Amino acid sequence: MIYQDSTIVLEVRDLCASVNGVPVLKGLNLTVKSGEIHAIMGTNGSGKSTFVKVLAGHAAYVVTSGEIYFAGQDLFTLSPEERARAGIFLAFQYPIEIPGVGNSQFMRLAYNTLQASRGKEELDPLEFDDFVREKMQVLEMNPDFLERSVNEGFSGGEKKRNEILQMSLLEPRLALLDETDSGLDIDALRVVATGVNQLATPENATVLVTHYQRLLNYIVPDFVHVMDDGRIIKTGNKDLALELEAHGYDWVNTEAAAQTAKVTP
Amino acid sequence: MSEILQNIINQPYKHGFVTDIESDTAPKGLSEDTIRMISAKKNEPQWLLDYRLKAYAHWLNLQEPHWQNVKHPAIDYQNISYYSAPKVKPKLSIDEVDPELLRTFAKLGVPLHERMALAGVAVDVIFDSVSVSTTYKEKLAGVGILFCSMSEAVLKYPELVQKYLGSVVPPGDNFYAALNSAVFTDGSFCFIPKGVKCPMDLSTYFRINTEESGQFERTLIIAEEGASVSYLEGCTAPAFSSNQLHAAVVELIALDDAEIKYSTVQNWYAGDKNGVGGIYNFVTKRGLAQGKNSRISWTQVETGAAITWKYPSVILLGENSIGEFYSVAVTNHYQQADTGTKMVHIGKNTRSTIVSKGISAGKSNNSYRGLVKIAASAEGARNYSQCDSMLIGQQSGAHTFPYIQVHNNNSQVEHEASTSKIGEDQLFYFAQRGIDAEAAVSMIINGFCKEVFQHLPLEFAVEARNLLSFKLEGSIG
Question: If you count Cβ atoms within 10 Å of the first and of the last residue's Cβ in chain B, which end, N or C, has fewer?
Fold first, then answer.
């Protein structure tokens, strides 16, 4: 939702980044205000997943130039865990399995770490159990997931729900969803969307990266950006996603190329 | 990220101090005279001197073993002192123990005094070659339990010692056991009579303090029919640049329906980050589940020592007897561990369980070596083995050498193994949830070792977690 008196949550200027020495992001600009939902779409390899990993601070993604401000703070001065504590949450495209570590234990440590860094009250195991079970009901998750090891042996859909569960526990200022819809059946998609929509408040913002339009039937974005070759080449409202669905990515690329040709003398 | 991991796993050793206490240390070297000297210092009976001399003669004919997956320079057995004792004569009452010693053990976190009383643990403390204090003796004696140093047992209960000493690990069993049989200086003795359930955990704490001395202790635990006991062993040593040899022998005997649970948290000095110094921990531990329905359980957390060579084993002789081995072995820097167990099934319907967790970091090498042997007589025997290895960093090694020998066709043996790695992606996942690398490694390692820790007595489980924290992460459990 676009609000009148919203503040800037994320400001990205001319961001360039490489992976293994290969440039992937080549001058990306984006402004996200509180309350807004942004969808970033693009073909495989366009750099959209790289972008959210750079925001989260993954060490394999090296920023070569540009600036990122998160709630006014220079993001590059923060370590990955400090970014998380400041309120950046990444729902992983491929959530990591951690054998032997109980899901409930893991989530409680994450929750209490964030609570502590926000000067808020931590929960003991019993209190946390009540709290997390409530959240799980919304996501239609079986409480058995609490007893299992983090993501170990979870199906693709279960892993994604587990990400959204963590997101709902941690209540991030900025939620980044990396292809959360991939591999989900229609029911899971609806459930995941419910979780995301519930979190949307005037204070928070969401950036979701997706390849397909179908998630946007459930989560209505305020802005749709099309990425190609490491940059955002087109920005529109939710209708842009429908156009993409109808005409394919080539259509935007051709259009963008035509525009570039026009401005180039 | 890997730099963080490196810092986490490279915490310094906190037990590396030396106690400034005057010691009566024998000149270096080993000969019949050395053995006579040790025996004379302890006022031992003739049979024990004979036992030692026989073992020594045998040892001279044995070769140092080299089949294990470890490397070390040749050990000069003539360059070791075989006896070292604090000069103040060890007293039996705790109030008379040299305060410097008490301070040492307090520093190590060994509950010797009031804390020990609160913890309800009876402790025997071995400092270099001698036992300095055994607590709770009277209370235990009230229910017929004999718990004292080996030296004292030799003098007070010679018939029991003579009957059982070497009955599970004979003097000629292997090179280091033979050496121990010849020169052992002290250790713990524990006898639980028929039908008695030991009302508290018994504990021995081993400390090597002298640079040139070896430690050769001998522990003997006997549980008669229907008796049960839980026994804990802890060890530390100062940080010296030379290597010290620790060659202990532990023998357990469980008669009908008896249970012995033996838990070790081994934290000998492991050498520095370049692999200089550290204890050579070459230990023979074996239990004889002699009686029907008897049960022997080994739980070990091995974090220290430059080299560990140790296979706590169970001979399952009695019908329906049970052997268990739960182990966590952690190696870092240049540490080497070749550890595991032997389960030898002889009696009918005997059962054994092996759960081994190896964690290798730095440039260390960690090997599991285990034998499961089912004799023809062991009808209906069952074994379950699980060997999991975890690698931290790029330069560590994990190896598994399972030996399985089955001599009948109605037994069941299962072996499972896995290898995993703490990956940067896992640490990033934790970091993205606000959890720093130290806490993450702690949680992963704790999760990995869970099945072993749950078999440790409560206070020990806490200590083990702290030790791993300390060893691998500053707070890693």
Answer: N
